[in-house]
Design a protein that fits this description.
The chain is mainly α. The protein has eleven helices and no strands.
Length: 381
């Protein structure tokens, strides 16, 4: 008991007891410096996330407004007087007829399917920039996946180290209990032998005591190392989980953005979109040759766009490239269903992004409340 009691008192001494004043002050300044670095890292992370959230809000918001206008045009067409709707359908039928004549003239030399050609034509102004954005987003997604795999691996390593430390502690405790029982039994045995033989057992007792002291020192040091490993593992695990949650948010946002882009441009990757775009450009060059011989198609498209504009359509130029829907009510209804689903997905994305931004702002306010010296940052955000 005396041996363990003295050991415990030694453990209760503070970490500064054997330091000079300068060393203690230096350690304190070091801890303050670490806290400042942690604060800067937190602010950098939150500002990056807020900037990304704002970018997603703007991009998704523009898509959301465009889809709303598209749906509004369909509902406007459905509510037009029969005479006006019939005029629009007739003009659309003329455009389809001229397009078919152009396709027949090309005689099967089409590089990409007609539906994908129309998509390229509809979004021809934005696709060059979108190709670069998609390539960056796909590369960014790969980086995020790699980060997630690394963090999951780190979590596994940390968990394994913690479990091993816990197992070692349990083993030491059980082994110590057995050793104490064995020590008591051997001591009793030595006493009995000493009484029966009248021989001194001082040397065996000294050896046994020395072994007990050595083991006690090993036990204390090893248990302390295990406790430090467990505490360090808990800190590292919390940090890994925090980073993984941040990476998962980036993953969800990036996947949602790419999924919507793939659906919009009828592709599965930026490579496929690039192939379709190059095919479209080649076919467009051929069309220029045909348009020199006839302006009927262009005139029909302009006439349709003018009538649509007078009818109050928000996206008349877009409908010029979707004329088949203006002649087929069933196809128009199916398009409306698709657009409503897109509208729903975009709304979910906007709401998800808004919740994430609100959470980040809440975290920032809590941080500023604890650190008033950063209050100006909250105003700038």
């Amino acid at each position: 008991m005396g041996l363990f009691g003295r050991k415990k008192k030694k453990e209760e001494k503070t970490e500064y007891e054997w330091m000079t004043v300068d060393e203690a002050l230096s350690m304190k300044e070091g801890k303050a410096s670490r806290r400042e670095k942690d604060s800067d890292r937190f602010l950098d992370d939150i500002q990056e996330q807020l900037k990304n959230a704002e970018r997603i809000r703007l991009e998704t918001g523009r898509e959301f407004e465009e889809v709303e206008k598209h749906i509004g045009d369909i509902e406007r067409f459905e509510g037009l007087p029969k005479q006006v709707a019939a005029q629009i359908s007739d003009l659309a039928a003329n455009v389809i007829s001229y397009e078919q004549m152009r396709e027949d003239y090309q005689n099967g030399t089409r590089i990409i399917p007609l539906d994908k050609y129309r998509i390229m034509d509809m979004y021809s102004d934005e696709i060059p920039d979108k190709l670069k954005e998609m390539e960056e987003e796909e590369a960014y997604l790969l980086l995020i996946k790699n980060d997630m795999r690394q963090l999951e691996g780190e979590k596994g390593s940390i968990k394994y180290a913690r479990e091993e430390a816990e197992k070692k502690k349990k083993f030491l405790i059980k082994f110590t209990e057995v050793s104490v029982v064995a020590l008591i039994a051997v001591s009793i045995l030595f006493i009995i032998i000493s009484r029966n033989t009248q021989k001194s057992m001082l040397l065996p007792f000294l050896v046994m005591g020395a072994l007990a002291c050595v083991y006690a020192a090993y036990f204390v040091v090893t248990m302390r190392d295990c406790d430090n490993t467990v505490a360090r593992s808990d800190r590292l695990m919390n940090r890994a989980v925090e980073l993984l949650n941040k990476v998962k948010i980036k993953y969800v946002n990036t996947v949602n953005t790419l999924d919507y882009t793939y659906e919009k441009y009828m592709c599965n990757s930026h490579q496929e979109l690039a192939f379709n775009w190059q095919g479209y450009l080649k076919e467009k060059e051929e069309e220029k040759k045909y348009k020199k011989n006839t302006g009927l198609l262009a005139a029909s498209q302009d006439g349709l766009a003018e009538v649509l504009t007078k009818a109050g359509f928000a996206l008349p130029q877009m409908w010029v490239h979707q004329v088949e829907y203006l002649t087929d009510r069933h196809a128009l209804h199916e398009l409306k269903t698709v657009l409503l689903e897109r509208h729903r997905k975009l709304k979910i994305q906007l709401e998800f992004n808004s919740k994430q931004k609100s959470g980040m702002m809440s975290d920032l306010k809590s941080f500023v409340k604890k650190h008033p010296e950063y209050s100006e940052l909250l105003g700038s955000v």
